[in-house]
Amino acid sequence: MAAVSAVPVLLLAERNRWQRIPCLLLPPRRWTWKQRTMKYATTTGRNITKVLIANRGEIACRVMRTAKKMGIQSVAVYSEADRNSMHVEMADEAYFIGPAPSQQSYLHMEKIIQAAKISAAQAVHPGYGFLSENVDFAELCKQEGIIFIGPPSSAIRDMGIKSTSKSIMAAAGVPVVEGYHGKDQADQCLKEHAGRIGYPVMIKAIRGGGGKGMRIVRAEKEFQEQLESARREATKSFSDDAMLIEKFVDTPRHVEVQVFGDHHGNAVYLFERDCSVQRRHQKIIEEAPGPGIKPEVRKKLGEAAVRAAKAVNYVGAGTVEFIMDSKHNFYFMEMNTRLQVEHPVTEMITGTDLVEWQLRVAAGEKIPLSQEEITLQGHSFEARIYAEDPNNNFMPGAGPLVHLSTPQADLSTRIETGVRQGDEVSVHYDPMIAKLVVWAADRQAALTKLRYSLRQYNIVGLHTNIDFLLSLAGHPEFEAGNVHTDFIPQHRRELLPSRRAAAKEFLCQAALGLILREKTMTDVFKLQTQDHYSPFASSSGRRLNISYTRNITLRDGQNNVAIAVTYNHDGSYGMQIDDKAFQVLGDVYNEGNCSYLKCSVNGVASKTKLIILENTIYLFSMEGSIQIDIPVPKYLSSVSSKGTQGGALAPMTGTIEKVFVKAGDKVKAGDSLMVMIAMKMEHTIKAPKSGTIKKVFYKEGSQANRHSPLVKFEEEESDKRETE
Questions:
Q1: Are residues 383 and 484 in the same domain?
Q2: In this structure, what DSSP letter does residue 636 have?
Q3: 158-172, 318-332, 374-388, 438-452: which has the minimum mean pLDDT?
Q4: Is 317 helix (H, G, I), strand (E, B) or coil?
Q5: Last residue of one domain, picked from the residues 462, 495, 528
Q6: Domain count, the chain
């Protein structure tokens, strides 16, 4: 077993640096006196003074904040990729556990147990993902005398196998959806049951969650390919390729109930969350409570979820997931035996800290509140901010966070994150950057708060889904609460509209920002050189051989825009774009760590965040965000922006899992060429055109870099003529 080395305890000054990250654990406005007393009560039973968090990123930071609040020391573990990460900085101690791939670090049970022993941690908090629902890890902790902050391994086992869980739920009187959950896993058997149930059907891995190993099959001809794809992904994620088949309910809602149990036989529910709006079978925005759900249905949901928890003697935080039809009939889908990603919205509407409850219950205490004492107040939304490109089928991305600024945290705003400006979103892990959580007295007010906060969340360096989340939060059907799991496909055209030309006023702002940056640079040059007669030491437009008017070319999308700029004696600028004239005046100033452009265009004043990096100008304001490029002369451009035309390119860095073609094969446009594993997801690479494969560049198991060619096609006569 590899050695586990400790990093020194962080200096207080260094640690305080990161405590400025805006995050609020609880809206204190709703604490009762009993809750206040309990919040500061000393832990009884099995004493926990030090907890190891067997995870990374935002959930590790989230657990640490509560641990510090309770006076419990926190221990981090980290991979090579996370050596300088935020969760390592926040911890009281941190231990290196291996290379970047999670199989060699965060999923390596023995290394984590060894770190717990060396650090003398009495408990391990698994967070979500990784080992959080791993039966073997829960049992190993028990064998080593370490408290596993989660349910008994028997509950993880029963609920982790979907076929077993559905049988238990049916026996407990919890409604279940029609399907096949049998042991016969032959492809033909599964296909026959799919035909019996009737298409569309859902193929699901019997273990795990997070959309892994899950496929919707709408016709019999698709079944075999989708089954094989689901099996591969399930094997990669859960080391088990067993599947179940369920009837797929069209346009259902995904409604889940937060439950909590203790070692004394008590179980409660903390109301429901609606997580219907998803892409790639993964949640993107969640809210609590569910819109339009009546109190009597809410009560039935909660009671069914408690029956489910008691059926497996559940302890700790868990989530019972249901699908709900248009008539609010609901059916058990699965139980997540861990803390959910979206738990903050439940905390916001109930005034609780579920991580504190986890730690107290793990130490042997009873659930802090009875069912009658848990009240629902207001409404909360959580938006997951991802490194992904919504315009490219939500393709996950990786790279540096060159600029990162967020809304200010307050009593109704939480920012759950594990990254800072300058950090990198790694290709080895989930591409989630942060969770933006807001609360208000009602749904409409909370939605307004969400949109306002999203406009203040500004990121430069990689593609994000922030603009998409804004479109989603502003859609009339979402605002009306008409949500379902097909929401994004159904409204795709409105949510992902074609790119529009930038307003000329924005182009004026971009040009002004560029001119003012030039002025700053020339002023610095003038101070450094002390050469007042240099033609480069003036930014007024009166340089030698330069007239009062100059032309600036900016690129808006694929179009070059010519702007004629006149420098006026009073410091203002005249700008001509096509046949329209603008009078522009403004200046750049710094506020905090950001630069702002305060300007007036034809008398309309605005304040816009301005970032200029390399050949791109970024503008962020309450009206939206815009990106304007500065064209690079052809003689300076070494690589064509169009990339390789003769084959398929890797959409991101990843591992080639499966290769379906070889040299000489004839393929049609849309045929599957390869399967790539990247960012914890399986991506099928399709043929961009029909033709004959000339060369395959990668073998199964090899690593391909982003934009590298995967296959090459035989050059056809039409292609030859185009290049001649």
A1: yes
A2: G
A3: 158-172
A4: strand
A5: 495
A6: 5
Residue 551 corresponds to which amino acid? N
Q: What share of the chain is helix, strand, coil (3-state, %, to 5)?
A: 30, 30, 40
Q: Is the pLDDT of residue 686 over 70?
A: yes
124 and 12 within one domain: yes
Confidence of residue 633 (pLDDT cuts 50, 70, 90): low
Residues 6+ away with beta carbon under 8 Å from 712: 646, 647, 693, 694, 695, 697
What the block records as the tokens of 185 is: 């896993």
Query: For residue 665, what is the domain's CATH number?
Result: 2.40.50.100
**pTM given for the model:** 0.79
Q: Is residue 142 within 8 Å of 153, Cβ to Cβ?
A: yes
The reply to whether 475 and 604 lie within a common domain is: no
SS (H, E, C) 90-148: HCCEEEECCCCCHHHCCCCHHHHHHHHHHHCCCEEECCCCCCCCCHHHHHHHHHCCCEE
Mean pLDDT score of the chain, rounded to an integer? 87
Rounded CA separation 65/356 (Å): 10
> Which two three-digit tokens encode residue 245?
């088949």
Q: Say if CB 164 and CB 155 are below 8 A apart.
A: no
H or E segment at 396?
Answer: strand 395-396
- The catalytic residues are 338
Higher pLDDT, 499 or 363: 363
Give yes or no: residues 315 and 358 share one domain: yes
| φ/ψ of residue 125, rounded to 5 | -105, 120
Specify whether the CB–CB gap between 381 and 446 falls below 8 A: yes
Among residues 514, 552, 521, the alpha carbon closest in space to that of 538 is found at 521
* Structure tokens belonging to residue 421: 């400006």
Q: Which residue has the tokens 């968090």?
A: 53
**DSSP assignments along 700-721, one per residue:** TT-EE-TT-EEEEEPPPHHHHH
The answer to whether residue 641 scores a pLDDT higher than 50 is no
DSSP state of 206: S
Region 552-571: mean pLDDT is 94
Whether 673 and 603 map to the same domain: the answer is no
CA distance linking residue 98 with residue 250, whole number of Å? 44
Read off the pLDDT of residues 357-389 as tens digits, 9 standing for 90 and up: 999 999 999 999 999 999 999 999 999 999 999
Torsion of CA 97, 98, 99, 102, to 10 degrees: -60
The DSSP secondary-structure symbol of 724 reads -
CA distance 434 to 458: 12
Strand order in the sheet with 316-324: 330-336, 316-324, 253-261, 267-274, 285-288, 379-386, 432-440, 413-417
Domain at 137, CATH number: 3.40.50.20
Peptide bond connecting 200 to the previous residue in cis, omega within 30 degrees of 0:
yes
Distance between CA 332 and CA 337 in Å, rounded?
14
Number of Cβ atoms within 10 Å of the Cβ of 714: 14
Residue type, 275: C
* Whether 85 contacts 417, CB under 8 Å: no
pLDDT computed for residue 534 by the predictor: 52
Which strand (E) or helix (H) includes residue 89?
helix 86-90
**Integer Cα distance of 42 and 46 in angstroms:** 11
On whether the CB atoms of residues 444 and 473 are closer than 8 A, the answer is no
| Residue 655 amino acid letter | T
State the residue for tokens 């902050």.
Answer: 149
DSSP letter (8 states) at residue 177 = -
Show the domain range for 541.
504-631
Tell me the per-residue pLDDT of 425-473, one tens digit each, with 9 for 90 and over: 998 899 999 999 999 999 999 999 999 999 999 999 999 999 999 999 9
